Amino acid sequence: MSPANRFHIFVATLTITSMYWFLTRLAELIPNPDSLSPWQRAAIAYVSSAAFYQFCALGLRYVLDRWIWARAKVFGPDFVRGTWAGCYKTPKGESRITIEHIEQTVDGINITGYAFTEQSDRPIITWTSKAAAVNSNDGVLTYSYSCDAFAAKGTHEGIANFIFERTGKHYPPDYLNGYSADLVDGVKSQNREKLITRNLIALPDAWKQAKALSLC
């Protein structure tokens, strides 16, 4: 089940529960249904249900935006939000530390990545996702990206494909193991990324933690 489907199921359940409470607890404030025509009863039911659904959806989105634990429960095995650290080798054999900030909402996934040398916490390459998707059944994260290398002119496109390493099919991944490939040359750069934290932390701190993990 996709995160969006889980979200709408939670909202629908909350709406039904709220409507039941409203009808049972506040019945004295509602006109006797027998005194209303069928179209009036239908209109009241439709408007009140739609209003409750909208209110519950806004409330749940507010909670998910501010409470990572709740977001993890909604996303389940699809949950990849956080700061991930990895390392890959250039064609010349040089090590490049990578940091990816993965932001995840009900509406989609946004990935911002950075590559560093082992000597400096200032990124030399950045990339942003253009389209990203998670297949939790197969345990795969795929995305296309736009890449900007500071030493090169212009930008270029690429694709990335990562397989989940996790303790079980119903759990989110602890590692992402796969590759990225720039479309200009098609060379695959293998990378294994480890989840540092569910928060999106500052790049210097993330770089230091990646260095301490000896991922290269």
Fold and architecture overview:
The protein has 216 residues and is of the alpha+beta class. The chain has two domains: 3-66, no CATH class; 77-213, Calycin beta-barrel core domain (Lipocalin, Beta Barrel). The chain has helices at 3-25, 38-66, 68-75, 203-213; strands at 82-89, 95-105, 108-116, 125-135, 140-149, 156-165, 175-182, 188-197. The chain has an eight-stranded antiparallel β-barrel. A hairpin with a 2-residue loop joins strand 2 (95-105) and strand 3. The longest helix is centred in the N-terminal third of the chain and has 29 residues, at 38-66. It starts with a helix and ends with a helix.
What attributes does this structure have?
about 220 residues, eight-stranded antiparallel barrel, Lipocalin, 4 helices
In short:
With 216 residues, the protein is an alpha+beta fold. It has helices at residues 3-25, 38-66, 68-75, 203-213, and strands at residues 82-89, 95-105, 108-116, 125-135, 140-149, 156-165, 175-182, 188-197. An 8-stranded antiparallel β-barrel has the order 1-2-3-4-5-6-7-8.
List the helices and strands and how they pair.
Blueprint: H1 3-25, H2 38-66, H3 68-75, E1 82-89, E2 95-105, E3 108-116, E4 125-135, E5 140-149, E6 156-165, E7 175-182, E8 188-197, H4 203-213
Antiparallel strand pairs: 1-2, 1-8, 2-3, 3-4, 4-5, 5-6, 6-7, 7-8
